[in-house]
Amino acid sequence: MSTEFNPDRLLLAMARRKMKLKELAASIDISTRSLSLYKNGHEEPSITTIEKIANCLGYATSFFYGEQLEAIEVDSVSFRSMSKMTAAKRNAALAAGTYALAFNQWMEGHFQLPASNIPDLREASPEAAADLIRNKWSLGEMAIKNMVHLLESKGVRVFSLAENNREVDAYSFWKDERPFVFLNTMKSAERSRFDAAHELGHLVLHKHASPSGREIEIEADRFASALLMPAGTVKTSAIKFPTLDQLIKLKKKWSVSVAALVRRLSDLGLITEWHYRSLSIEMSQRGYFKQEPEGTKRETSLILDKVMLALWKEGITREAIAKELLLPVPEISSFLFDLQEPESSSHQKTKPNLSLVN
């Protein structure tokens, strides 16, 4: 830990708390000019001021003396709902991702994790890319049991986003040739699963492009739809003039939302445009765009589960990890898919000797 105040960490903490300069200055009773000088690194605040900042933002004072954290470049990230997202919500989600990057670096220093096996398929159409992925990963035409586990087995680091809003659906990016995906846990299990496939679409289709714009979001949606619901099995299972209740039962075959299945049937020409619109109206009337009927179990990280269990057995709590990373404990918990730590872990005292997670 440095002995000098790190202004970039102040910016990061403010972004994470969605707090503007004027608001923070008023909360700790200093001038906006003084806070601006601290934020820009032109002056160093007193210990008393740092304590006020830390208390207001919910951080330990040590956080503001930490080393530089790896920043996530906004232009390198794909966000699904940019039109609905404020800059404050986007920056808060990116700050959470920055903390997860620090945790991932710490985790990779203690465990041997799967290497990246994500192909670059920029030249392929979304549907062709989905077929190529299925062939490369020997998935055949079968339903994918767990998208998060599949991504992790191919070297993608998957973390949760505990953002208290629905505008930040999910996002993904490449960092030093390592793919990352973040999933919002407020979404239904089916929609979060689709988000995981959608973000994989960005990783394989848009690796060296600036991942923004409506066109590439449509491409990622088409990829996710084709990956989760292969054309062959959908056509084989399709019902002529299906009712919404029939589709609610059928969606379970691929663990997708009924809305995603209806869209897939339309894209494959298995229902007419009129039928698609009628089903969409009925879904809206029943509230299925907000609450998924007959939902499935939420997918969570297998790697994080194994890592945290191994750490618990070695007597390493998330409090200890947070202290080492100079982060608040809730920030660590926020990207761990709500994994629960056994109460007895705080009483384990053996030293770690960790090398491998299978």
Offer a quick outline of the entry.
The protein is mainly alpha-helical. The protein folds into 3 domains: 7-65, lambda repressor-like DNA-binding domains (434 Repressor (Amino-terminal Domain), Orthogonal Bundle), CATH 1.10.260.40; 74-228, Orthogonal Bundle (Arc Repressor Mutant, subunit A); 232-286, no CATH class. Helix content is 48%, strand content 6%.
Describe the structure.
This protein has 358 residues and is mostly helical. The chain has 16 helices and four strands. A hairpin with a 2-residue loop joins strand 3 and strand 4. The chain has three domains: 7-65, 434 Repressor (Amino-terminal Domain), CATH 1.10.260.40; 74-228, Arc Repressor Mutant, subunit A (Orthogonal Bundle); 232-286, no CATH class. Helices cover 48% and strands 6% of the residues. Residues 344-358 have low confidence and may be disordered.
Give the tally of β-strands.
4
Q: Indicate the CATH class of the largest domain.
A: Mainly Alpha
- How would you state the average pLDDT, rounded? 91
Helix count equals 16
Count of the domains: 3
Share of helix among residues?
40-55%
At CATH level 2, the architecture of the largest domain is Orthogonal Bundle
Structural class: mainly alpha
Task: Return Rg in Å.
Answer: 23 Å
**Share in β-strands:** 5-15%
Could you name the ranges where pLDDT drops below 50 across 5 or more consecutive residues? Answer: 344-358
- What's the SSE pattern? HHHHEHHHEEEHHHHHHHHH
CATH names the topology of the largest domain as Arc Repressor Mutant, subunit A
Shape: elongated
Q: Strands of the biggest beta sheet: in what spatial order?
A: 1-3-4-2
Largest sheet: 4 strands, mixed
What distance separates the N and C termini? 33 Å
